[in-house]
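Project outcomes to date are best conveyed with an example. Our students and postdoctoral researchers have been running inverse folding experiments weekly, and each run begins with a structure described purely in tokens. The record below, which covers 90 residues, was selected by the lab manager from last quarter's runs and is presented without edits.
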């Protein structure tokens, strides 16, 4: 399912027009990003948790040239599904 299909599905499910659904999804996305940028986690009961994972600096290899390169430390967003979501999918 892509974003257009998601918007269509939500529009039919909650009986809102597509513009309102788009604004809602954009606001949700901005809120998740803003929360992670602050270093906080966003916990959505029954769905899962959005967290920021820290990766330390490390030595990597360029797959094209096999040259060793230094990779800087970075933060990576991650999603951990809730137990409820996992059970519903099974």
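After processing, the design step wrote out the following sequence:
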């Amino acid at each position: 399912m892509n974003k257009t299909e998601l918007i269509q599905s939500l529009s039919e499910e909650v009986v809102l027009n597509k513009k309102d659904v788009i604004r809602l999804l954009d606001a949700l996305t901005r809120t998740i990003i803003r929360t992670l940028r602050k270093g906080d986690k966003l916990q959505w009961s029954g769905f899962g948790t959005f967290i920021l994972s820290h990766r330390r600096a490390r030595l990597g290899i360029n797959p094209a040239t096999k040259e060793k390169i230094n990779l800087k430390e970075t933060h990576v967003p991650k999603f951990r599904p809730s137990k409820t979501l996992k059970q519903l999918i099974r």
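The helical segments are 3-14, 18-37, 83-89. The mean pLDDT is 94. The training component of this project remains on track.
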